[in-house]
């Protein structure tokens, strides 16, 4: 049985920091785990590692783009694919059709949109995530991103590094979070944790838009109000945060048309998936001042090309950009949790034990999760 893991290269960082588990070097801890179970290391080629005991062969690589990549070559006979949203192996319908042995895809983290989930349903390939493994990590990043935009932090820090000091140039676009209206698109594990963390900031209103209403007690405990229409939600918000999965119903959801309904000068934070927001529409809205700021860690293509407009886009005052590489859900704390969860899913599969129901996105021939769109 072949297990293929597509992870990112950590280089010297992974050699110096063994807790960088999501890297090709540290392999989610799978090497130690297999060795401790009596598996034997049988060889190494390029950035690919092989371990085997009787019928288990594990291949780990970061090479994922194009027909000659290790991903596209090894997927042809792999039974299990492990990949991470931080360096996604894009498993298209076309590749699924060629992957004749594939039975299980494990997302080391949360968010399985890099897999064509409808094709996985059709081909009876199960898709599991390590649900909840990094939701606090992301929620903290969202709150940080809201604050850094509202308080105009990035231009202030850059000014200091340049040796300058113009308080007014920063303060003219700096505000308090207190008294603002904040809305989340998606109020699942992350969206709800964002709302919880915003409570002490005394915002004017906390709103959410989600086809799955929060349990009444949960909504009440954070004072969140559900808004049934998305345009209505964004038109009320000073700050919008995106916390839903990427699927057919959310791809390009935040586009030119929706951005027109935002309050002039609103701030937008997206740590969910880059493709939920239209790249060029966001850059235009920021340049025109329709948005005062955009922040997040997710991009429509990862790694983002060097000339991606989100790297350098700015508001008319030269600020408003809080973009970073995709790392909010891959803190060292999160890596420990999703590495353990990945091994547990793999172990269940190898030993025939049932999987934790909350980890199953696609079961045998059907969606088990209700989070990937209303069906
Ligand atoms: P979850 O499954 O707990 O919650 C998702 C919520 O979004 C559900 O309540 C669902 O009903 C709602 N939703 C789905 N479609 C919607 C739509 N069209 N409009 C409004 N709401 C909609 O998922 P969780 O754990 O909160 O994660 C959400 C997403 O965050 C993941 O799917 C992933 O894309 C992203 N994520 C990003 C990370 C990062 O490092 N930047 C790490 C972890 C997750």
UniProtKB/TrEMBL annotation:
<feature type="binding site">
    <location>
        <position position="271"/>
    </location>
    <ligand>
        <name>NAD(+)</name>
    </ligand>
</feature>
<feature type="binding site">
    <location>
        <position position="297"/>
    </location>
    <ligand>
        <name>NAD(+)</name>
    </ligand>
</feature>
<dbReference type="GO" id="GO:0042183">
    <property type="term" value="P:formate catabolic process"/>
</dbReference>
<dbReference type="InterPro" id="IPR006140">
    <property type="entry name" value="D-isomer_DH_NAD-bd"/>
</dbReference>
<dbReference type="GO" id="GO:0008863">
    <property type="term" value="F:formate dehydrogenase (NAD+) activity"/>
</dbReference>
<feature type="binding site">
    <location>
        <begin position="245"/>
        <end position="249"/>
    </location>
    <ligand>
        <name>NAD(+)</name>
    </ligand>
</feature>
<feature type="binding site">
    <location>
        <position position="134"/>
    </location>
    <ligand>
        <name>substrate</name>
    </ligand>
</feature>
<feature type="binding site">
    <location>
        <position position="110"/>
    </location>
    <ligand>
        <name>substrate</name>
    </ligand>
</feature>
<feature type="site" description="Important for catalytic activity">
    <location>
        <position position="273"/>
    </location>
</feature>
<keyword id="KW-0560">Oxidoreductase</keyword>
<dbReference type="Pfam" id="PF02826">
    <property type="entry name" value="2-Hacid_dh_C"/>
</dbReference>
<dbReference type="InterPro" id="IPR006139">
    <property type="entry name" value="D-isomer_2_OHA_DH_cat_dom"/>
</dbReference>
<dbReference type="InterPro" id="IPR033689">
    <property type="entry name" value="FDH_NAD-dep"/>
</dbReference>
<dbReference type="GO" id="GO:0005829">
    <property type="term" value="C:cytosol"/>
</dbReference>
<comment type="subunit">
    <text>Homodimer.</text>
</comment>
<keyword id="KW-0520">NAD</keyword>
<comment type="function">
    <text>Catalyzes the NAD(+)-dependent oxidation of formate to carbon dioxide. Formate oxidation is the final step in the methanol oxidation pathway in methylotrophic microorganisms. Has a role in the detoxification of exogenous formate in non-methylotrophic organisms.</text>
</comment>
<feature type="binding site">
    <location>
        <begin position="189"/>
        <end position="190"/>
    </location>
    <ligand>
        <name>NAD(+)</name>
    </ligand>
</feature>
<dbReference type="InterPro" id="IPR029753">
    <property type="entry name" value="D-isomer_DH_CS"/>
</dbReference>
<feature type="domain" description="D-isomer specific 2-hydroxyacid dehydrogenase catalytic">
    <location>
        <begin position="50"/>
        <end position="354"/>
    </location>
</feature>
<feature type="domain" description="D-isomer specific 2-hydroxyacid dehydrogenase NAD-binding">
    <location>
        <begin position="144"/>
        <end position="315"/>
    </location>
</feature>
<dbReference type="GO" id="GO:0051287">
    <property type="term" value="F:NAD binding"/>
</dbReference>
<protein>
    <recommendedName>
        <fullName>Formate dehydrogenase</fullName>
        <ecNumber>1.17.1.9</ecNumber>
    </recommendedName>
</protein>
<dbReference type="Pfam" id="PF00389">
    <property type="entry name" value="2-Hacid_dh"/>
</dbReference>
<feature type="binding site">
    <location>
        <begin position="326"/>
        <end position="329"/>
    </location>
    <ligand>
        <name>NAD(+)</name>
    </ligand>
</feature>
<comment type="similarity">
    <text>Belongs to the D-isomer specific 2-hydroxyacid dehydrogenase family. FDH subfamily.</text>
</comment>
<dbReference type="GO" id="GO:0016616">
    <property type="term" value="F:oxidoreductase activity, acting on the CH-OH group of donors, NAD or NADP as acceptor"/>
</dbReference>
<keyword id="KW-0963">Cytoplasm</keyword>
<feature type="site" description="Important for catalytic activity">
    <location>
        <position position="326"/>
    </location>
</feature>
<feature type="binding site">
    <location>
        <position position="210"/>
    </location>
    <ligand>
        <name>NAD(+)</name>
    </ligand>
</feature>
<dbReference type="InterPro" id="IPR036291">
    <property type="entry name" value="NAD(P)-bd_dom_sf"/>
</dbReference>
<dbReference type="InterPro" id="IPR029752">
    <property type="entry name" value="D-isomer_DH_CS1"/>
</dbReference>
């Amino acid at each position: 049985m072949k297990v293929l893991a597509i992870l990112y290269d950590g280089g010297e960082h992974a050699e110096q920091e063994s807790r960088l588990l999501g890297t090709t070097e540290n392999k989610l801890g799978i090497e130690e785990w297999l060795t401790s179970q009596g598996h034997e290391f049988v060889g190494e080629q390029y950035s690919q590692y092989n371990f085997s005991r009787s019928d288990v062969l594990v291949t780990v690589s970061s090479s994922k783009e194009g027909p000659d990549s290790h991903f596209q070559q090894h997927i042809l006979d792999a039974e299990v694919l492990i990949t991470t949203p931080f360096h996604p192996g894009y498993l298209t319908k076309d590749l699924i059709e060629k992957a004749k042995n594939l039975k299980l895809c494990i997302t080391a983290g949360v968010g399985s949109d890099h897999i064509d989930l409808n094709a996985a349903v059709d081909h009876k390939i199960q898709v599991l995530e390590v649900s909840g493994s990094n939701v606090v990590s992301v929620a903290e990043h969202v709150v940080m991103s809201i604050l850094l935009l509202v308080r105009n932090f990035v231009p202030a820090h850059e000014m200091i590094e340049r040796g300058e000091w113009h308080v007014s140039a920063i303060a003219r676009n700096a505000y308090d979070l207190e008294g603002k209206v904040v809305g989340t698109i998606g109020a699942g594990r992350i969206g709800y944790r964002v709302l919880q963390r915003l409570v002490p900031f005394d915002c004017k209103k906390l709103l959410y838009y989600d086809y799955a209403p929060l349990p009444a007690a949960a909504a009440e405990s954070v004072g969140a109000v559900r808004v049934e229409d998305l345009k209505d939600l964004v038109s009320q918000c000073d700050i919008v945060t995106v916390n839903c999965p990427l699927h057919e119903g959310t791809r390009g959801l935040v586009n030119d048309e929706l951005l027109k309904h935002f309050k002039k000068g609103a701030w937008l934070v997206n740590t969910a998936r880059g493709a939920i927001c239209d790249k060029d529409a966001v850059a235009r809205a920021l340049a025109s001042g329709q948005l005062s700021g955009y922040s997040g860690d997710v991009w429509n293509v990862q790694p983002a090309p060097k000339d991606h407009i989100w790297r350098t886009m700015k508001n008319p005052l030269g600020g408003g950009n809080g973009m970073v590489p995709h790392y909010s859900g891959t803190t060292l704390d999160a890596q420990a949790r999703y590495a353990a969860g990945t091994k547990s899913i793999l172990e269940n599969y190898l030993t025939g034990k049932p999987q934790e129901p909350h980890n199953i996105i696609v079961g045998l021939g059907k969606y088990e999760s209700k989070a990937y769109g209303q069906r």
